[in-house]
Structures are given as C-alpha cells and as structure tokens.
C-alpha cells in the first residue's frame, strides 16, 4: 500500500468520525452541559432568592417585634395611667366620705349639745323652782310652774 493512500484513507476516516461526532455525539453533550449550567444557575438564583427572602423575613420579624414592644409599652403606660386614675378616684372618694362622716359627726355633736343644753335648762329650771319653793315654803300651782320653767328656759 501506498503511504499517501493510507494517509488519505485515515484522513477520510477521521473526517467521517469528526462529522459523526459533531452530528450525533456533540449535540447531546452540549445540551447536557447547557442543562447542567442552567440548573446550577437556577440553583444559585434560588439560593440568592432564599437569602433575600430570609433577609426580608428577618426584617418583618424585627418590625413585628418592635411593634409588639411598642404596643406592650403603650399597654403598660395605659395600665399605669388607669391605676393612677383609680387611686386618685379612690382618694377623692375617701376624702368625700371622710368629709361626710365629719359633717355627720359634727351635726350629731351639735344635736347632742342642743339636747344637753335643753336637758340642763330643764334641770336648772326644776332646781330653781324647787329652790324657790323651798325658800318660799309654799307650792306654786302647775300653770304658774310651767310658765316659770318656760321663762327660765328662754333666758338660759
């Protein structure tokens, strides 16, 4: 065989093999590599999206916690305000009750004083009449006696 013919035959076989590889083997390999690259890119994009979603979720959580803290502080402040108002109301009620009790006690004391004065006037009048009766050693009639007592009460 001739060296040129062998070289030419090998070149033809190589070209046929290259054409066969480019036509039937290379496209599925390229598709598989492209699909793998797309999957990797999708995975990286999903990871980035997951990171951003996580960051967003963390921001929402932080915001919710801040709102909850603020609401808690507001509720505590309102409760303290209500407690203070209740204490002031109780204090005002106690002061009003004390004033009412004092007024009732004063009225009762005034009434007892008036009653005691009336009783004393009666006793003093009776003693005065009894003393006058003993001095005069005579008895005064009932009508005169009552008039004298009323007159003495009025003077006292």
From TrEMBL:
Main subcellular localisation: membrane
TM regions (residue ranges): 6-26
Compartment(s) of residence: Cell membrane; Endomembrane system
Keywords from the UniProt entry: ATP synthesis, Cell membrane, CF(0), Coiled coil, Hydrogen ion transport, Ion transport, Membrane, Transmembrane, Transmembrane helix, Transport
Coiled-coil residue windows: 69-97
Membrane topology: Single-pass membrane protein
Domain of life per record: Bacteria
Family statement: Belongs to the ATPase B chain family.
Role according to the record: Component of the F(0) channel, it forms part of the peripheral stalk, linking F(1) to F(0). The b'-subunit is a diverged and duplicated form of b found in plants and photosynthetic bacteria. F(1)F(0) ATP synthase produces ATP from ADP in the presence of a proton or sodium gradient. F-type ATPases consist of two structural domains, F(1) containing the extramembraneous catalytic core and F(0) containing the membrane proton channel, linked together by a central stalk and a peripheral stalk. During catalysis, ATP synthesis in the catalytic domain of F(1) is coupled via a rotary mechanism of the central stalk subunits to proton translocation.
Annotated HAMAP family: ATP_synth_b_bprime
Subunit structure: F-type ATPases have 2 components, F(1) - the catalytic core - and F(0) - the membrane proton channel. F(1) has five subunits: alpha(3), beta(3), gamma(1), delta(1), epsilon(1). F(0) has four main subunits: a(1), b(2) and c(10-14). The alpha and beta chains form an alternating ring which encloses part of the gamma chain. F(1) is attached to F(0) by a central stalk formed by the gamma and epsilon chains, while a peripheral stalk is formed by the delta and b chains.
Protein's UniProt name: ATP synthase subunit b
Organism of origin: Robbsia betulipollinis
The encoding gene: atpF
